[in-house]
Amino acid sequence: MSTGWLLPNSPVSAKEKSRSPRANHDIIAQRTPSELSHYDESRKKVLYHKTEISQDGTGLSRKELEVAAKRIMEALEIRERYQTVVNGVGSEKTLGKIPSNTKFFMKDGVVTFEGCIPTVDYDQYVKDVSTIFDTVENGPTRSTCRNRLKILDEKYAIYIALNSEVEENVCPMRKGGGVFSSCTKVDNSVRLSTAMHAQDLLDYIVKTYETSPNTVVSVKGAQKTTLKDVFDKYDIHEPREFTIEGVGLHPPVQKRFHRFDIFSKDTNRGGERSAEVLKLFLKREMPFYHNLVKPILDLNDLEFNEKRIATEYKLPIFGTSAGEWQSLAKWVCETGVSGHKVNRWIIQIPRIAALRFTYTVATTQEQLDNIFLPLWEASLNSDDPKYSNLAKFLLEVGAFNVISDEQVRGQELPRNRPPDQWPWSENPPDLYFNFYVFANITALNHLRRRNGLNTFTFRPNCGEQGKLDQLVMGYLLADSINHGITMERSTVLQYLFYMSQVGIVLSPLASNGLGNPIYHENPFLRFQKRGMRVSLGTDDPLHYHHSRHPCLEEYGTASKLYRLGPVDMTEIARNSVRNSGFPEEQKREWLGARYSEGSSANDQTKSFVPTIRLVFREDTLSHERKLLLDTIHASSPQGTSIKPSRGTSFRRISSVSSSGRPGNIAEERIAFPRVDIISPGSSNFDAATITAAAEAAKQIALCVRLRLKYIDTQKQEVVEWRRTRNGNPIREESNEFAADTSWECIPKGGVFRYKRKSQNDDVFNPVGLMDLETFFKDFNTIHDIVENIHVKTMCHRRLQVLEHKFTLHMALNMKLENAAEDGGQSRDFYQASKVDTHIHAAAGMTARQLLEFIIDKAQNCLDDIVQVDKTTASPITLRQLLKKLNISPSNLSVDTLNVQADATLFERFDNFNDKYNPMGNPDLRNLFLKTDNYMNGRYFAELAKSTFAQYTHDQYTYAEMRLSIYGRAGNEWTKLAAWFDTHGMASVHNKWMIQVPRIYPIFRKIGAINSFQGLLSNIFEPLWKVSLDPASDPKLHHFLKHMSGFDSVDNESTPDIAFPLVPPSEWTSPENPPYGYWMYFMWANIKSINVFRRSKGLSTFSFRPHCGESGLADHLMFCYLTADHINHGVNLRLDPVLEYMYYISQIGIAVSPLSNNSLFLDYLQNPFPMFFRRGLYVSLSTDDPLQFHHTQEPLIEEYSIASKVWKLNANDMCEIARNSVMQSGFDMDVKTRLVGDNWILTSSKGNDSKKTHLSNIRVAYRYETYHSEIECMEESAGGPIFDGLRAKFTIDEEHDLLSSVDGSDLNQHEEAFSPSGDSASPSVSTEPGLVVSLQNENTDLKNELQKLREALTRVSDDVKEFSSPTPPTPPPPAVVQHGPIGRSNSDDRSNSAARHQQRLPRNHDQGSRYHGLWQRGPPLPPSAVSRGSNGGLPTLPPRLPNSAGASRRPPKEYSNGNHVMTTNSWTLPLPPPPPPAQALRSPPSAKPHNGGADMKLPNSLR
After folding, report:
1. Among 684, 769, 1122, 1434, which has the highest number of CB atoms less than 10 A from its own CB?
2. DSSP letter for each residue of 1211-1263
3. From the CB of residue 506, how many other CB atoms can be counted at a distance below 10 Å?
């Protein structure tokens, strides 16, 4: 019988110990929480990595938890009442033996006798069933049980991830592959008639026919039928031609069965012939049957010492005749199938509806009499020769099993209708029939127990299919059940079965053979993980197995397909012994003399289950019970959820563990249920394991250290920005366009570097600029670490812990996270700012947008000159081009454009590139989707602006669109900047990124470049020129302010050649350099120019290449060293070390699942949700909306599909959106406006939930988990190996940073960098007058702003003489236009001031701390004015100095045209713009150009 609730090692009195295990359950249930805490104290020593939950239950509604706890405890007590009756509470021993002449009688359908302990009343049973049904259907109980089961799942997953080696070390015999073969396992469910191997059956049929064809198989009167007669009747002349499939021994996989019956011609695919032949050999009444099954039983005994397999074979009793038991017992005893030590019999009572057409009895009571009255006779009169065989047989019987025909539904559970009033033909309900079987078994057990005989367990088939009523019955009455598959539909029943530890025997292979369900959908694995007492049975080896050891096949299949370890297998085997009907003496022999006492008495030499596994199971069960009791015993229950406190103080933690939570970091300002991992210490590990873990941790730290040689972390950047923003200006120039003639740049080894012209020494080597050889050496170091087996093992384990820890956190805190914070702010994802950090401008619009645009041009702009004929040099209008291409606006559709992704793109990058050509025509791509064409990219600019307008309308959507620089010519930057400037392509909702396609072989082949150095020169030399002398190309200088970084794009699946250690000037081969070569020289040149531009106060660039979409893992290693963040990264799923490295370094990963789905990876296989759960720094992006999206808001579409498919809640979406903002290249001040003033902080202190709509609990969890992970690594390594390497601030660092910002603890900061390597004097001291000085400066700034407005008014008056006489046409009020060529452009002047005022930061009126106003200086040189588009404009008056006469740095950003002008931290409205300048024609077909938006201010003010 089940041991259910007994908690091993709990303090119980001697009186309590004397009671049966069942009686102890009530005692445990009556204990108070304080008594249970004593139980916890007695087990205080941690034997394994233990998952502890602080404040468990506070994440749920207190009212719902109380309702659920009461209902669950009531259900547990109801079952306890039934099991107490079953076990008799030990009273039988005091009553003495029952004499053989005792009269027994039938009472209310149950056989009983005078003095018999009464069983449960049927009417009470009906009430209890109703109570359990109400509990199962109760909403709060269902929610609570679902939550608790999820917690059980994640606790087990974390336990397995952390304790597999502990389990190995505590049992020396387990080393080298486990000891499953040595542990005893019981096949808990196998029918004797189908226990043989299919081929053995066929061989036996052939042999019998050949040796005994004349054996009589049936007699009807005087007519005898032999075996040969039957074969002749069905034209079987050669039995050797029989096959397993031909005889129908295996069910066809094309069909699903409720139950497979080989004796039925309807289900046996061999038909009537096969069915009749099999009846001759597999029916007990046939003469061949015992010779077929006896060798099986003999072999089990013979092989037991080697295989350690015991069996429980089923024999049927139908109850249709009074002599059925005698016949069965005689057959068993006389044929020699009895007396096997490793077998127990299960009496099977079939209730199959078809049997009613063969056998008939009058009532249900008569059937019960036929089943149980002979057992009473044999139990009382075992010495009577009439019952001797039956009495002997019953000594080997262990259980009764009822097979229900669950497809046949009877009426509702009746009242006041005893079995003698229930006709046999009416088929009573299963709940009714099973109760009377249970009641009779219970009464019979009382008799047998008093007479010192063995007893029987009740093990019905339940939940194979159908409704849940069978499982409710099984929960109340059964010691264990068979199948239980449908239990997966009810979380409440699962939880009740777990808490009561009711045994469950599943047969996954048999269920798979019937298609109910298929193997991977079987709930066995989920039940096992949750700690339910599951074991395996084979059911019908003849039908579903292929080996001669079906039990081993069942276990072996489960271990491989479910990935069960040796300990899992031994635990299941132990459960099989506990679930079996073998006597206690036999169980103690197999599991240990005190196995029933639990982990404290576990004998590992017999059970082969590590004690810590049993301790874990008991701790988990104890915790669940304690939670229920604590909830019920709560003295002052609250009706609402417990909300986290809003305290302002939080613990300052650097690299030390928090008190009370060793190894677990906590932000005490945020209260929520936390998941802590408590380590057992090193005593449970062997020296080799400890050494391997320490070395693996050090290797990961080495990887991080190598990365920091190449990449400045975001921590370093934001600290420098915060200090600069608050009083520590970096080096600046007095004039934005003043050339720095003291420096020059020259390429050295493929990298442009700078040097002073006046010096003859070598070029300056920026700090952190590694040479190619060092880079390749570091890559090889990373590669070796990634391939290290110990590092792989550790990283895989840590990633598993991170993933399941998050899922456990969500189970505990989902409601708390979704609860309103900060004055009722909801989790409104739509109002959370989000950035599409990976989107290509040429595909940034949707297919519908492109279609409408093309139709509009085809209808209204047919006379635009769009091309020049290459042969005749004559202009070609849009009308002529469309006619040439046979395109009519009336026939255009999204389908005819053929730009959207389809099935032809999967793993076909060439087809993907072709989709950029509308209607497959490169001319249309050149016209509409290129910046460099005859129209100077006018159409493309208008398309991009329509996308910007959508972002503006949405308000909370931003993007970083990619434009291409190929490196084929040195004037690409100039052309691109001219396009940007001409069309006014700046937008507050977009930052531009430059993508560099890796298509060097194309340009080398056509002779555009002679070496790879030529390509690098064309890309980076123009940037150096404009950085050294901004006036040399003002448009490019202006464009670079709106550019956030570089990307590198192309097909990664192209094979790489070996990494060459040659400079780019020597790479003249037509072959493409390998991916890593590209990455190094992109990174090195970006790094070099960033150092110089940062020293000049100019904007810098990030490097965020495409990486890990396909191709080799080497790509991810190269980018680990060189990239700030990456795009795609889905191949990280293939390598746990790289994935863990990206987590520890918090490298941003912009994943595009819809793009991946069409090109390389099916959506459901995308690792994004796994990355997210594990805490990788992920965001969502669109890649190419033109091809992959269908709505007008592609980024919202990307988020929406992800949320529905992967079940992301609003808080998850807000976290991903916040990540996208922080990963983006938008200016720091923009990020401050979008996600909060303290966004640079990595703890919850940096989260402004009013802006991000993200719960502080989530941010605190991510922060704590990251630092706890670092603590774990340092604990493994035995020292602080991550000092200075953490990607997130420690709380000490945040405290210091906040103190310096607030002016209360200003420290002397780092000195500004000088290109010469000298240190500049610090601009800010820590003198007491500093704060007063800054306040005075704010006043000066206000005065300066007023003077600036006056200066701008004078500019407006001066520009009037260049204005066009045609007044501009205002655009729709909701859309901000940017003035493309050929279109008039202005704004709604009446509303512009109000709109600009809305964009002001909340504190700008008080004078925010910032550095620099607009630079003013001498007139621009002639080269700074583009006469072709903007005309000549006067310069501004000389710069107004502040009160201290200090020079101010250039602005961070200026908007295009007449809209918003932005400095570091605030926005100013501009006065109304002057009338448009004189229209100028660019292409011959262009309409009069409005200079309003594009010509109002010189480039220095854009």
Report:
1. 1122
2. HHHHHHHHHHHHHS-S-HHHHHHHH-TTTT-SSGGG--HHHH---HHHHHHHH
3. 28
Strands 223-226 and 216-220, bridge-based pairing: antiparallel
Question: What's the CA gap between 416 and 429, in Å, rounded?
Answer: 14
Q: How far apart are CA 286 and CA 1386, in angstroms?
A: 101
Computed on alpha carbons and rounded to an integer, the radius of gyration of the chain in Å comes to 41
Classify the C-alpha dihedral 561-563-565-571 as positive or negative: negative
Which among 1122, 961, 1119, 988 is positioned nearest to 1044, based on CA atoms? 961
Please name the amino acid found at residue 382: S
CA–CA separation, 127 and 682 (whole Å): 54
CA distances for 1207 relative to 1173, 1203, 1218, angstroms: 12, 5, 18
DSSP conformation class of 149: H
CA distance 570 to 738: 79
* C-beta separation of 424 from 367 below 8 A: yes
**Phi, psi angles (nearest 5°) of residue 822:** 50, 60
- Residue pLDDT, tens place only, 889-910: 878 877 777 776 666 666 565 6
Calculate helix-pair angle for 1210-1223, 789-818, nearest 10 degrees.
Answer: 120
Distances (CA, A) of 504 to 189, 279, 693, 738, 1475: 11, 31, 38, 83, 84
Q: What is the pTM of this model?
A: 0.80
Please report, for residues 869, 876, 1222, the alpha-carbon distance to residue 873 in angstroms, rounded to integers and kept in the order given: 5, 9, 50
Distance in angstroms (rounded) separating the CA atoms of residues 425 and 435: 19
pLDDT in tens, 579-620: 999 999 999 999 999 999 989 899 988 999 999 999 999 999
Catalytic residue among 250, 1042, 1128, 1489: 1128
- Tokens 């039988």 sit at which residue? 92
- List strands edge to edge, sheet with 1467-1469: 1453-1454, 1460-1462, 1467-1469
Are the C-beta atoms of 1302 and 707 separated by less than 8 Å?
A: no
- Pair 1016, 966: CB distance under 8 Å: no
Question: Which class for 44: exposed (0-12), middle (13-18), buried (19 or more C-beta within 10 A)?
Answer: exposed
Assess contact for 427 and 355: CB atoms under 8 A.
Answer: no
Cα-Cα-Cα-Cα torsion 427, 431, 432, 433, nearest 10 degrees, comes to: 70
Query: Are the CB atoms for 88 and 448 separated by under 8 Å?
Result: no
Q: What is the dihedral angle through the alpha carbons of 565, 568, 572, 578, rounded to the nearest 10 degrees? A: 140
| Cβ neighbours, 10 Å, residue 1471 | 14
Residues recorded for the chain: 1502
Residue 84 zone, left/alpha/beta (φ > 0; ψ -120 to 50; rest)? alpha
Q: What percent of the chain has pLDDT over 70?
A: 75
Catalytic residue check, 1128: yes
Amino acid 470 reads: Q
Cα 651 to Cα 667: distance, rounded to the nearest angstrom: 6
Contacts of 1324 (CB under 8 A, 6+ apart): 727, 728, 1306, 1309, 1330
Cis ω before 21 (30° cut-off from 0)? no
